[in-house]
Automatic annotation (TrEMBL):
A single MF term (Gene Ontology): phosphorelay sensor kinase activity
Protein name per UniProt: Putative Potassium-transporting P-type ATPase D chain
SUPFAM superfamilies found in the cross-reference section: P-loop containing nucleoside triphosphate hydrolases (SSF52540)
Taxonomic path: unclassified sequences, metagenomes, ecological metagenomes
Any one of the GO CC terms: plasma membrane
Amino acid sequence: MESDGRRENAEALLDEYGRRPRLVIYLAAAPGAGKTRRLIEEIRRMRTQGRDAVIGWIDTKERADLDWLAEGVPRLTPRRVERNGRWFEDFDLAAALARKPAVLALDEVAHVTLPGSPYANRWEEAIALRDAGITVICALNVAHLESVAPVAERLTGFPLRALVPDRFLASADEVVALDVSPRLVRSRLRSGKIVREADVDTALERTFSERTLQILRELLLHAVDSVTVPSVSAERVSTAVTFVPAIPSAQAYVERSAAVADALDLALEVRPLGDADIADLNDAARRNNAELLSEPIDPATIDLERVRASLLIVPRGAFARRIVNHALERDVFVIDPEQSFLADPVEPRQLEEHLGGSSERYGRLTVYLGAAAGSGKTYAMLDRAHQLLDDGVDVVAAFVETHGRAETERMLEGISVLPRKIVSKDGIRYEELDREATIARHPQVALVDELAHTNAPSLTSQKRYEDVLAILRSGIDVLTTLNVQHLEALNDTIFRLTKTRVRETLPDGILSLADEVILIDVSSHTLRERMRDGKIYPRERAERALAVFFSVENLTALREIALREAARARSRERHRVPFERLLLCVGPRREDEALIRRCSQVAARLGVEFSVAMILEPRDAADPELIAALQREAHRQRAGWQQETTAAAPRRIIELARQVPETVVAVATTLRRPRWPQRNAFARRVLDAGARELIVLTRR
């Protein structure tokens, strides 16, 4: 059944303006991530907006800072239950339903309720509250999810008493990741903020070991990513669909599909064609973190307009030839079902050279990654700085941009701030990070905001990340901030999703160099509220931003990308590559400069070599200056360049591809639907000429 877009938009507006009850879940990797603090802060924020928000249940564990934060906030009285001569307290659902506030905070939803509640579990009470018209903000640790608990129990050696079904997450209106550095959690543990002092050493070895916390963080991000599904048009959705025919083994086919999907920053769905073995496909999907849609499809009758994906992966044959012969708004990977090549990725085009320096670093780099401005990256960085100062670490703010936000300015108090470098050029005054002064001061930790920033003219470094690399090489740890849309290799993905071209970028290899990438997750709903309150941009710019870049659709899509990039950055494994070289065929067209850049980014993400071939036909009236510009762009992307003139371009591009084993040809999609007596689209002619595999890229 097709959805009514107008109804969805109306319901989204009702959600946004608080007229519909919502269930918001804050999900953390482990105790000590700040769940209780986040709940209290959210309730306080909503009360400043005039909403009737109360605390239903929290346990501050007698921590003075949390008790102080909760002071003055209305709090429901817990019910008391006697068991075996002892009195216990629990959340009072009946009192909450009678009071019926607009918003209620409910901590520790992975909790078995005491006798007297109509529900056995607190998560069920949360759903009942929403059903009764109350917005619920709640929290739990990812280990308590049914799908994660077996892994968590093996890691820690302890059984988990209370579990929460995955369907609870799926039923939520929003699930927000609370990502915290394992070093910070372990620091909090040692300071007695999580367990009793007598239990600290045991906890550090088991539940709070570095390995356990890292694995739980990855599971956290995957869990949140799985329920973050933006409602966008088919060509903008962050999903790839691979159609798998009946073949002896689907593992190589699905793994090769997953590698290309991952390079384009897409989740993968597996769909069987005809009589494909469902059990085999299910195993292959599970191994490659993909989702299997088990209903078989007849390729002769499939309606691709109803397939929500921005990448289609199809087997070579009549189905593929039909698809690539039409103008497309999404990419296509034509895959040979008999091809099983998979190899370990290489680091293409010398990452260190691309970053402008040696990869050898002495300081630790921590990147606070967000989906958009206003997500709280700087605030989180400053919060970590105060934790370090409390531990006796020498921390300085080398460059922190508060954007005039009062909360951020208060967080900067008590931190030593270095003077900025003042640069005047063409009558314009710039304030920049003073790299030399930071190195001369040589603190243990330097705070450097806005990593993707472009420096003022005449400075030694063109980009701020180059300054950060120099500071790291001097032996100073750096905490920095970055929005995901500034990653260079995601430029096309960001444009596909938001229709906005981000001009200020930096190499995404910077995340590979980082010792820690910490996701600062925040819901699109909260970001838009902050925008309206003037906490991100001045109010006069807010309405336009809300209508364009800060639309719910864009923010949800950006958040999904940030989740995946954070997971990718800390993943210990990389996909094997489905081929060793990508050969892009271009023509004498100005728009093919952008195609070269896009294909170069795909090759870099895959970890394969990249070359460009200009294949001219005798009838082409090629502009020498245009060809030279295309060649320069190829060289800028560190790609090989070949140029030939031939009457049989499809056959020649295949011959060039076969000169290097395991090369796949890439071409641009046709801009028109071929009609007789016109020739078929070039992609179709390349397949007809004998190409075993082919990538067809949209022009953006």
